[in-house]
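Fold this sequence, please.
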Amino acid sequence: MLVQRVQNQLADWFGPEVHRWRHLKTYRIYHALPDQSPPTSNPVYPVNRIRSGVFVCGEHGSLPGIQWALLSGRRTADALKDHLYGYPPIEVKGGAGC
């Protein structure tokens, strides 16, 4: 059952007290993401730097989904940190996530 699987996963994160939590509701959202049939864009694209100190992030330029939005945010935060501390920008040509 889905609820039990979710509780087991949460117990790994938060401990056994999770099993005392009460399930409120499950929402099944069909077609929550657009079609991602191949070919798709490369989710590991260079950080979009508009101009010095201005960056754009989000999965709008990549595959749709929370994991790609988080990856984009992480990579943009790293690029901003590098910008603030004077490191030269690094362009990623492809590869696995961070």
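The helical segments are 2-14, 66-84. Residues 39-98 form one domain.
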